[in-house]
Amino acid sequence: MAPPVAHSPVVGRKVRSAMLLSAGLGTRMRPLTDHTPKPLIEIAGRTLIDRVLDKLVAQGVERAVVNVHHLAGQMEAHLARRADIEIIISDERDLLLETGGGVVKALPHLGSEPFFAINTDVAWETEGDDTFLRLARAFDPGRMDAVLLLADMTRTLGFHGAGDFFLDDEGRPVRRGDRARAPYVYAGAYVCTAGALAGETVHPFSANRYWDRFAAAGRLFATVMSPFWLHVGDPEARDKAERWLLDRAAGP
Fold first, then answer.
1. Which of 76, 140, 227, 244 is the most buried (most CB within 10 A)?
2. Model confidence over 137-152: pLDDT tens digits?
3. Could you tell me which residues come within 8 angstroms of residue 38 by beta carbon, excluding any fewer than 6 positions away?
């Protein structure tokens, strides 16, 4: 049986802006991040952040806000080379704002329409991929404050946790809590609107805080991605992800 997904009557909804969470220290990726910011680590000849941007451009996203902190100058220089998407830097050199505060700081650049918020330490095949488009189509602002992208734990590489969520019959995520395992892991992306974050202030905090608020109101949903998900969290996972991508590119 197919996993439950977020149900929405919306077809063809477009999301034109994205927030890329790229300011982390990359501690678990050391020593690779001693002199290179984690989003600029390469797998199969392409940086992690460019892999995300490539997908966004292919699926119609026009603007990306990218937060920077660790080795921020390298990030700015690298991103300045892209001419296919507008890139706005959200500077967190003075204070790292975490996954919630970083998004709130970027809100003035993201506008009032739905936007993506995306981690840059995940990857999957790019050619022909429409994962972000499907995530955008799953978002129904009349019923939802956010829709999370999840991966099936049986279709992941490089992730060693016990899973994050169950899904109910309506496509609402339920946290694992004290259960030993859950069938789905957060895949590093969600769609939200600035209106859902009204009242939040710019300070360091996790996005989990407002996800829990959305869930309590019955307005947090999720959808399960189709591609095989690669979590690039440490050097060993980077090497495994690269081998997987290169093997797939080489074909049978």
1. 244
2. 999 999 999 999 999 9
3. 22, 24, 25, 26, 29, 32, 48, 70, 120, 121
